[in-house]
């Protein structure tokens, strides 16, 4: 038995880092064989074929086969895990409505193709930006597929939030648990130190510096993507791929006892977040299903910031509704 994994935008930067991690067994574990189905736009199919040659040359024991498509219907046929990485980037002078419309042209047909032919246990992770709203478009156009199967990636924000907190407190990354990102995968996302723990102590207390949290930590995590572009001359790719692997691995294999991860999932109204938008919450996973962690402390400091990032998502939802995409 092997698992079919579809990756869109396979010839892109993230795709290049991601595909080797998947083929080596890091996405699904060392006992699961993988069949890769790569989707690209026609102009990029040749480059995807080049990546496929390199995957072949790596002689990965778990990699059974690679197929490359420019047609979403074929790319999602029988697929169990879909990583939607390819998206239309914002170009100079582009308004947000144009960006959302261009991405609607990608994610609506992909949602329809998933509904038409994916396997019954399909799990979807959207990485391509604006990821939360792209996920909402795909989900809204995938009749018959449970909404819960559509998620968007805030795991890179989560990992960045852990790394920055570890550096500040001098703790090891493994000493930090219960990190939660709330909201949109955008600079408005909110990393929550009231519920995160450093060696079991509330992170807010371990840091003991509200000014640092409000004025350095939160903006730094939120704008880390821009900092990487500035330093590297290109956007983050390997860290985004690594976060995508973490997201799917934990979704499939379950979270550690007492801990949780951040995933953008369709809101059920928990914490007064409007139902239906795809927004990041702390979640636990078990048996391939996620559950929003309930009963967490949301003081005023958090509430303001959660409202702000959620409002941004509501505006995006209203914009794509106006375009008839959801
Ligand atoms: P990347 O592989 O670098 O990025 C792909 C997407 O991931 C972008 O939307 C990017 O957003 C997003 N992303 C999400 N989180 C992050 C993060 N933390 N850091 C960086 N990126 C993040 O883009 P490339 O341009 O190299 O490649 C895109 C590929 O997708 C191309 O090969 C193109 O042909 C393909 N494509 C395929 C489609 C399809 O299969 N139907 C449709 C459209 C494109 P952001 O732009 O905001 O950085």
TrEMBL record:
Enzyme Commission no: 1.1.1.37
Gene3D superfamilies cross-referenced by the UniProt entry: Lactate dehydrogenase/glycoside hydrolase, family 4, C-terminal, NAD(P)-binding Rossmann-like Domain
Name assigned to this protein: Malate dehydrogenase
Role this protein plays: Catalyzes the reversible oxidation of malate to oxaloacetate.
Residue positions binding NAD(+): 9-15, 103, 110, 127-129
PROSITE patterns: MDH
One Gene Ontology molecular-function label: L-malate dehydrogenase (NAD+) activity
Family in the record: Belongs to the LDH/MDH superfamily. MDH type 2 family.
Chain residues that bind substrate: 90, 96, 129, 160
Enzyme type, top EC level: oxidoreductase
HAMAP family: Malate_dehydrog_2 (MF_01517)
